Amino acid sequence: MKIGVLFSAYNCADHIDKVFEPWLELKDELGLVLAATNGRYSLSPEDKNDTKGFHSLLKLIGKKLDFLLHSSGTGELWTEEQGRNYMLNFTLDRNVDLIWVVDADEYYTKEQILKIINFIDENQQFDSYDVQFKNYAFKYPYWLDGFSKSVAFWVDRHEGVKDFYFDCDVRYKNGLTNDNNKNKTLISKNIAFVDHYSWLEADPRTSDKIINQNRKYNGPEGCRCIFKYNSENKLVFNEDFYNNRDLPMPIIHKTNKENDFIFDIVYAREEHCFYVVDTKINDIFDFDIYDDKGELLFATTLTIAPNVNFFIKPQSSVVNEVFYRVVSKKNQEIIFDREFYLNF
């Protein structure tokens, strides 16, 4: 399996060294073809002095890359899709079997890369593969759940990959697009749950991303991005976005101790209930739920099993709570400890 890795690296200078490290370590061992672009997109905020691009370029030129394309950020600008297509064409000319799309604020570990490749190798019947991301939001280490995207694509399916047509979605030569292709699969979190430094208030890129999404995405004005800045210039969830789509407001998480995703826990806001999902083993665990004062709200013991979802619903009303801590134990040892913020 020959893999071409396509990095979109503009305005990511603070992340580039750590993001590229595992890929460069694996480059020779796996025969990876590494390509990167660094150019301001046509929908990005106007900036006559493109220091954001130059800072990233200084980091990139020292890397052992097979392809690096940079624009000055002035004059003719390329779209996000054009940038990926430059890399796509280069890697296709190198006869890669698989392309893997990476934004340069996505922190794969070496172990995650190897586990994903092993999963793909054992499940070649799918055309593409979705990875789940831990989207850090507001301030580290708080994060959002529920974001995934297609990142890896076999290039020979459906008469061959033609181009990227929107973000990192591909179009095939027979006209099929990744958006309407049902032959793809979601890689589970126990294989990879990738750190994504995406929506941090202290990150100067965040304001640019909000502008970009409001220009690029569909929907009524003011309802195109999940974040906005309030009157005090503070980053907040954009309630208009969720109201327009009739979606519940997100839950913010903080991990105190992870269990390598032998199971996961999600909170259903509309049901005021926790669910134990994506279970990988048969076993017995204790579950304790605490409120924002550290007081125990509910405790139970569950025998969980693969392919079955279990619920934990405290007997007392939890409608007005704004914070929960869920702790799971095995033989008195904490194996899962996460905080859930309903209003952050």
Could you characterize the architecture of this molecule?
It is a single chain. The protein has 344 residues and is α+β, with helices and mostly antiparallel strands. The chain has 3 domains: 3-135 and 148-199, Spore Coat Polysaccharide Biosynthesis Protein SpsA, Chain A; 202-244, no CATH class; 252-341, Immunoglobulin-like. It is 21% helix and 37% strand. It has 6 helices and 21 strands. The chain has helices at residues 13-30, 51-60, 80-93, 110-122, 205-216, 239-244; strands at residues 3-8, 33-38, 67-70, 98-103, 106-107, 128-138, 143-154, 161-166, 169-172, 184-186, 193-200, 227-229, 235-237, 252-257, 264-268, 273-277, 283-290, 296-304, 310-312, 323-330, 333-341. A hairpin with a 4-residue loop joins strand 15 (264-268) and strand 16. Helix 1 (13-30) runs parallel beside helix 2 (51-60). The longest helix has 18 residues, at 13-30. It is globular and about 60 Å long. The N and C termini lie far apart (44 Å). The relative contact order is 0.11.
